[in-house]
Design goal:
Blueprint lengths: L2 H8 L6 H21 L4 H15 L2 H9 L8 H22 L7 E9 L3 E9 L7 E10 L2 E9 L2 E2 H15 L4 H11 L4
Antiparallel strand pairs: 1-2, 2-3, 3-4, 4-5
Helix pairs in contact: 2-3, 3-5, 4-5, 4-6, 5-7
Length: 191
């Protein structure tokens, strides 16, 4: 990615591919630091992760994506409530998954500009001999600032996975967003 392409993507002349690399590295470092300092309970890890989601992730965009066609069927107030409940759910689910973190290292491999978005390709490795798990960070330009729009681990999209799961739940409940939100609330460890 050239500096000009990065500037067009991000709307600021100073940002380039190295800045997107630094952005992803900063997010990962802050998440690891916050979660390692948190009480080792699942609710404490979820509470530590939630501010990071709100600061760096496009949670409204992700919430809209995971609801798919159902998004347009609910009121703006219901959309806002869903974004909040979805954020709490994601903080809870991924806060619990960080229990497995054992000091792996994140290495940025490359950055690919895709116009309105960019992909930062990384590997998360156990040690110097380990090739590492592939983790791709999809970055969008949200309100003039980079925001994480999706994460793919070994090609599996966080957003697409939850979209399939939520579509199934909504189908079972005749499209009732209240039923889905109740399920997410029951699985959430933070408010």
């Amino acid at each position: 990615m050239t500096v000009a392409a990065a500037a067009a993507f991000l709307g600021t002349p100073a940002l380039a591919a190295t800045d997107l690399s630094a952005f992803v590295t900063e997010v990962a470092k802050e998440a690891i630091t916050s979660l390692s300092r948190a009480d080792p309970t699942d609710p404490a890890r979820a509470a530590a992760l939630k501010p990071i989601l709100l600061k760096y992730f496009d949670m409204p965009g992700m919430a809209k994506h995971v609801l798919g066609a159902y998004w347009k069927k609910i009121s703006p107030a219901e959309q806002d409530a869903f974004v909040g409940q979805f954020t709490n759910y994601i903080a809870s689910v991924y806060g619990q998954r960080f229990k497995a973190y054992k000091g792996q290292k994140l290495e940025v491999k490359r950055v690919r500009d895709e116009g309105a978005r960019a992909i930062v390709f990384t590997a998360v490795a156990e040690g110097s001999e380990d090739a590492g798990a592939r983790v791709d960070w999809e970055i969008s330009n949200g309100n003039g600032e980079p925001r994480i729009a999706d994460i793919r681990v070994e090609g599996l999209s966080l957003s697409d996975t939850h979209r399939q799961e939520f579509t199934s739940v909504l189908s079972q409940h005749n499209g009732d967003i209240g039923a889905l939100m109740g399920i997410l609330k029951n699985k959430s460890l933070v408010n």
